[in-house]
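Think of the structure tokens as a kind of shorthand, similar to the way a musician reads notation: each symbol stands for something richer, in this case the local conformation of the backbone. In the example below we present two proteins back to back. Begin with the first one, reading the sequence and then the tokens, and try to describe in your own words what changes along the chain.
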Amino acid sequence: MNNIRLIIIALFLSFTANAQTVYYDASVFPLLGKISDSTETRYERLPARLKDLSRKPVWDLGKNTAGLAIRFCSDSRQISARWEALNDFSMNHMTPTGIKGLDLYCLENGVWTFVNSARPTAKKSEAVIISNMEKKEREYMLYLPLYDGIVSLEIGVDSAAFIGQPKVDLPQRTKPIVAYGTSILQGGCASRPGMAHTNILSRKLNREIINLGFSGNALLDYEIAELMAECDASLYILDFVPNASVEQINEKTEKFYRILRDKHPDVPIVFIEDPIFPHTQYDLNIRKEVSEKNKALRSVFDGLKAKNEKNIWLIPSAGMIGTDGEATVDGIHFTDLGFFRYAEYLYPKIVQLLSVPMSKKEKEIWIDASANLQTFLVKENVGKYLDTIAATGFTKIILDVRTGSGYPMYPSKVIPQVTKLDGQEIHRDWNYLQYFIDEAHKRNLKITASIPVFSGGRQHNKEGLVYDNSKWNGKSSIEYIPNKGMIDVRDNPAQDHVFINPINGDWQKLTLALLREIAGYPVDGIALDYCRYANGGNADFSETSRVAFEKYIGKKIEHFPDDIFKYDTAGKRIPGIYYKDWWAFRAKNIHDFVKSARDVIKGVNSKIELEYWAASWYGALYATGQNWASKNYDTSKDYPNFANEDYSKYGFADLLDIFQSGAYLEIIRGLDEPESIESQLANSMRIVKKDCKLYGSIYAANQKTAKDISDAVLLCLQNTDGLSVFDIVQVIRYNLWDGIKEGIRRASEAEQLSR
């Protein structure tokens, strides 16, 4: 009995030990948001040399840790913090957590996600921030107080857990954004540190932002400008107007600007107007003051423009924080809502400025309807992932707006909107297409709407128009299968997509009406996907196709389908007398539909770009009728096994604005390796002959490491006219954002050097 009791005690002590919190001095981890490391103590913003140069209020406010954050990595099931505030400061219009608390975020699929806050209880505080987590290695960022300083900080984890240096270099720390401003820029009055707009923007951009906000004291002190000029910044933000007087704006702004510009002749510098505070609607004195200050700033800005100053920008205050009066706590200082609106207002403008040196080639990412259904049933995820897409360096999204079942993803007057996909009931009270357009354009992202053209249902779940509406009975493709003869594609389990015969007039009419409707939206492009025959070359052998083919060749076929081809005992095709005519006929059918689609789309809006995706292995696509070549390319010369002299007539590259060549391969480099992305794209460029832009299209799941995806992205941007990545679901699953961003950066650098 005593032995059993000792074992139980030992097990209990072991469990208790494993559950104990061990604290680590946060000074061993990277500290983001500092413009200088030459400070009196670690947790402050201004270098020690300014102590006797700056005005005392500025120096004292520099002790506040606004914008500073600790980065670390841990697999602990619980994260705690122990810290001592510098002043134990309090205000009657801002929460203690915002003033002197901490805020923890975790990197999830490339997106910084709120975990929880550490609420202060006294000058010295200790708090469990989060507990009961799955034991999993995660990247963390811990924001420090906005309106107080830190004497000491420790991070607590389980005694058996790992805690160490971050393994992901995010937010990006090279060339940070440097922001100068007032109490609002410092973070007054966010409920918690992560909600200051500079911190929101830093997460959205995944780029370090240095916060030089000084409450009530953004009075254009020149030593602050000199300090800012010491930083190799990507962008300077000057948001001082709420504090400075009209006289100070007129007298000091240009000199402050010159200090920055003299050292950084090419860096964008942004001036921001005074917000239109809610109480200006009632307080006539405040209304006049705001108006006069903004007028003074515009006058200085116009003067700089008149002197031919380049790369300067003025951001107006209209609409900055909304017009409902609900964005402040006291008529001036922002609530979380105000900061969120302010960040949303500034974000697309900043992205635009930061994207100036990036590669000018288009960079697209697909959002497949079915694979991303669960993610984008949640409306809030649209903006969340578009932020990540923009921050990664993409310039366009390709959004599936019609499913493989034939139904649209948005409320259409042509076909009922999809209500069920892969067994999932769909209930949206918002327009999927319009909302994506609005949110994409806010972020300066283009949007191409994609539709699977000839897919009318899915075999695996028996969903789609062909199953729901008897009108389409007998309209799906008829396949000619070895040892089986003629079967409906709906009865062939090898074909998941139920293809409609591409020459079916009713389906063409329906799809063209849908394209006309989509073209009425403010989209930048429309992409044709699944605009082909069913896989394998076995379709369509319906009576409709027989009649149309006889008309094409100008004679009756005595032995159908044997005069086209038949099968030997091994299932191999034996060509008949009309073998090559058959492939040309099918290519003509797809060509003619592409032309009809182009005419319809351009007839609504000539600026919409027509895109088309197909696999890069051109020599196999005669089987699906996809002749994406230039009409000037002689297919019969390179591929005499299937192409006659007429085949080249039906190349449709000249009908496209953009062809996405799908090089969905694992090998990246090697012109002599036919199964490499490089070889396939080189061949595609040769075949298209510049009749349209050609984008290298890659399948993200084939390059699952950051290095591989970076190399593939670089190759596409260097060797073709643009990049297309399929699909966001794999980018999220394998966390490939950083690798893609690095590939874009490398391509941009190479492009700059070649100019």
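Once you have a description of the first chain, move to the second and do the same.
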Amino acid sequence: MISICVPVYNGSLYLEECINSILHQSFKNFELIVCDDCSSDNSLEILYKYNDDRIVIYSNKINIGWVKNCNFLISKTNYQYFCIIPCDDYIPSNYLEKLYLTMIKDESMVNCYPHIISFGKKNYRIHQKSLNQESTIERVIDFIMHHFKGVSFRGLIKKSKNMDLLFLNIYLQDDKFADTFQIFQHAIEGKLIEVDVPYYKRYHDNNTHSKWNDDVIDLYLSIYMFAKNFFNDTDLKLCHDTIYQKCQNTSFLIKNSFDIIVMGGGIQGSCVSLFLKKLGYNVCIIEKNNSLMKGASENNEGKIHLGFVYSNDKTLDTAKKMLVDALHFSNIIEFLLDEKIDWDAIKSKKFLYLVPKTSLMKENELDEYFPKIQNLYDEMIQKNYKLNYLGKRPPKLYEKIKTVDCMNPEYFQCCYETEEFSINQFYLNEKIIHTIKKKGIPVFLENHIKNMKIHLGYYEIITDKGYYYSNRVVNCLWENKTKIDNCFNEKKNYTTNFRYKFGILSKPIMDLQNERSITFVNGPFGDFVNFPDYMYFSWYPYSMKGFSVSDKPPDDWKFETLIENKQEFIQLHKNIFNDIFKREFDFIDPKIIGSIIVAKGDKDIDNVDSELHKRCEKRIDYKKNYFSISTGKYTSGPYNSFLLAEIIGKCL
């Protein structure tokens, strides 16, 4: 049995001639599946006039295009062999018989095809040589040299066991190249044999593929990128050289194409690239800044969260996520860097959690929440002896204490001493950058990603500096993540907010050197982080200089315009922290740092319903070979990279 697929769109002028030529075949054992793609003429009326049990008619309520309509028809086929005959062409009466009898002679055949006799606006005859080599690479090279006219697409096709090779590729411009690209897929699967039988192709003004060769470079690039999934470096080089013979404008293929492109070079993108490099992928990073590990990966407090700050998430989902990420952080970082880290040397002082009297959370609520963190932690470390928090496995994560002598009692209702730390981001970032360079991972700096396009089996990343190509893309962007996601996926059903958060770095202040680090919870407060080499100060009402809900931050958000008066900014922070610590001190060589913070929702942190009090969104979205990671916090970067590596492995 054979399945014959006829895609129809406004085909009333030629449809009867096409259908009649099929029904009068000498080979009778077939089904005829027809799908009208929301025609505006009387194509459906013509189809319904036929009274033949072999005919099955479908009708699309909306126009889905030629490629998707063909794929729909293929999905409805019931037999091992099928062919696609557009509604404006016709075939001789011995067409199916000739193709079928040739096909069954050799199990390695996947396509038996005719020669083309064109008529109408173009008149010529096309013969294309058989691809009957046993070697896959030899068939593909012959395809590149001789089969760009798409003749064998009209042949009898054996269904592929590989579903990715069975259907036409939908990621193309105006459905161009679909027929030629599927022939390439057939050449990968098996032999293609020309049979001495004609196929009559009509050329007219409305042919979908009448101008397919206008953008042939795109087709060459598609073939090369798809071939990377099947061939070793030697054979891939042969593909490239053959393509270059045909089109010398393709010299960029090897230079700017990669197995995987990682967009964004912060903590998330850098960890992902190192993980994928360890797995043997040719990976690169595209980053907008003049160095890796900038923005939020450098200009914040560097806390490795245990979940304490997310007490407003009653589900404990955020707490669980932060604990998992924190307990994997040091192990994964050391694995990626191929060295042990002296974590004690780069830790801050332990964190106190001070609860202001104006906190969004009451003391009794925190007294209920903190033990739950402890219980979750106990369960995790008992199940896995390898888990640790920055090289340690402390038995107790917190202790409630009555008062803190150095703090102003007018402001605070209670206090918790924790085992939570920040780490010196500057030190760790340099280690990561050095390892990326040592591993030879290409990094394209100062490349602002403008757009992403999907082609025949590959992605094109467009930046202000050039074009980059890959079969797989990992979106690790920070503030532009949603914008680029929307180039590929349907619009997200959530809102994204952006805040520009600033802080102050000071050289160590003598009067504060013995103080523990402090986080003020929950609400619009801030942090003090005490490192041996520097101190970090941030107070929310002064440090937050913008709040925007969109798919990207405002274009006019610049450091210089948001902090117009640096001295005033520093003085405001000095006043509030002098008041908190109940003593006078000055910052030493203060430096203002800042970065954009991204989160879900449309409410700021002073609102109890704000999504900023949660970080439990889905970690990784993926479709086809596009992966988008929701980093959330610095803490999550390493573990997310591990999960992504698992997903990519399963996808392959």
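Compare your description with these statements about the second chain. The domain at 295-429+494-619+628-651 is CATH 3.30.9.10 (D-Amino Acid Oxidase; Chain A, domain 2).
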